[in-house]
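Tip: read the tokens left to right.
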């Protein structure tokens, strides 16, 4: 099964080797037919501490690195 890749914005880089990425998805509401924006935050592994707040990045699923990290940063967009 392929690993999921998501794109989002770094909202926090305070922790060592970790960034928080805000991923926003848009979809049409099934009943109201209005475009809805929904966002979710993911904690991703950044081993070299190279990404800063505001960077657009791609994250990919990986094996658990810690209690809350199940994603790793693949590249900047």
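Filled-in amino acids:
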């Amino acid at each position: 099964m392929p690993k999921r890749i998501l794109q989002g914005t770094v909202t926090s880089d305070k922790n060592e080797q970790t960034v928080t990425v805000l991923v926003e998805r848009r979809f049409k509401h099934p009943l109201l037919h209005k475009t809805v924006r929904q966002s979710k935050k993911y904690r991703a592994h950044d081993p070299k501490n190279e990404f800063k707040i505001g960077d657009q990045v791609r994250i990919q699923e990986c094996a658990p690195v810690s209690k809350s990290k199940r994603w790793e940063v693949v590249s900047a967009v």
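The domain at 5-76 is CATH 2.40.50.140 (OB fold (Dihydrolipoamide Acetyltransferase, E2P)). The radius of gyration is 14 Å.
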